């Protein structure tokens, strides 16, 4: 592990420019662990773009090959009167290669330095010990300070994203207890895990028994970068109008809760410790009277039209 983290660990909203004083020499490494190729971009693409811009390293670990998830391009071709032969007869290798090309272009736009695809079937339904070990080994090799993955929400309901996170958390536990005597490698102390995708945007810690996202990253200044990355996922119909719908609604609602135009929301897995009570720059800068107007000022489709 490197030296002390210089990252601003104060909760709530990270303001644009708040990372400007970040010392590149002490840059941290973020590892994302998601089920499918596009998940990394839709959940935390804006956050990653901001961290990449200030010099942090980003590695995206993706459990499945993505060949079956939202295979719109191929399913839609079969609905046509005269399907294109190349598309209609594409096999798994072709479909996966096309999806990986989309992912690589999106990653380059965001500034993700490394992509690791474990290439499991998208249809996995349960936690798998071998996959847990694979993830743990990758965590040990990459040594990230920060991990981002999906919020497990309600694991009682089958959801590949919940299963992915259960495997990621099991892998974090495993990597955290590696012992050189037994495993040939040392323990990996990941410092914080940010869980994305909890669709709960209440404004305080008392509503709904306290279930909420407790940390928001302001992605307004990089929202065009996130859209451009999503525009690469043409084969699953995530480009164009859907990209704009998702950012307007999903990131717009997170932004409303955070008091900015567009945000990405997280639940932190571990407690945070401070020397004093934390108050963010965003909290100090907020004008409660005009907050709802300022966070509604970006005309997304006007500024970033469908290409
Ligand atoms: Zn997914």
TrEMBL record:
Entry superkingdom: Bacteria
Protein's GO biological process: glycoside metabolic process
Classification via SUPFAM superfamilies: LmbE-like
UniProt-listed Pfam families: PIG-L
Single GO term (MF): hydrolase activity, acting on carbon-nitrogen (but not peptide) bonds, in linear amides
Record keywords, A-Z: Zinc
Annotated InterPro entries: GlcNAc_PI_deacetylase-related, LmbE-like_dom_sf
PANTHER family: N-ACETYLGLUCOSAMINYL-PHOSPHATIDYLINOSITOL DE-N-ACETYLASE, N-ACETYLGLUCOSAMINYL-PHOSPHATIDYLINOSITOL DE-N-ACETYLASE-RELATED
Protein name (Swiss-Prot/TrEMBL): PIG-L family deacetylase
Protein source organism: Jiangella asiatica
């Amino acid at each position: 592990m490197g030296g002390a983290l210089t990252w601003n660990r104060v909760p709530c909203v990270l303001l644009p420019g708040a990372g400007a004083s970040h010392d590149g020499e002490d840059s941290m490494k973020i590892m994302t662990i998601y089920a499918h190729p596009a998940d990394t971009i839709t959940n935390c693409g804006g956050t990653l773009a901001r961290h990449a811009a200030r010099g942090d390293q980003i590695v995206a670990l993706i459990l499945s090959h993505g060949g079956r998830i939202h295979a719109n391009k191929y399913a839609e071709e079969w609905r046509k009167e005269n399907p294109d032969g190349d598309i209609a007869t594409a096999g798994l290798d072709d479909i996966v290669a096309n999806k990986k090309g989309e992912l690589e272009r999106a990653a380059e736009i965001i500034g993700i330095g490394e992509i690791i695809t474990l290439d499991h079937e998208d249809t996995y339904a349960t936690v798998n010990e071998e996959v847990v070990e694979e993830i743990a080994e990758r965590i040990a090799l990459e040594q990230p300070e920060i991990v981002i993955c999906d919020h497990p929400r309600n694991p009682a309901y089958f959801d590949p994203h919940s299963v992915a996170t259960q495997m990621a958390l099991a892998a974090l536990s495993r990597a955290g207890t590696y012992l050189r005597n037994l495993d040939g490698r040392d323990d990996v102390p990941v410092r914080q895990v940010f869980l994305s995708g909890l669709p709960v945007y209440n404004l305080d810690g008392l509503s709904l028994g306290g279930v909420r996202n407790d940390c928001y990253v302001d992605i307004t200044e990089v929202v065009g970068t996130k859209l451009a990355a999503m525009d690469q996922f043409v084969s699953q119909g995530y480009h164009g109008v859907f990209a704009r719908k998702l950012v307007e609604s999903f990131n717009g609602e997170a932004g409303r809760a955070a008091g900015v135009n567009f945000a990405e929301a997280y639940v932190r897995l571990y407690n945070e410790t401070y020397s004093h009570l934390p108050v963010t720059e965003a909290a100090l800068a907020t004008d409660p009277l005009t907050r709802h107007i300022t966070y509604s000022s970006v005309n997304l489709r006007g500024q970033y039209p469908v290409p």
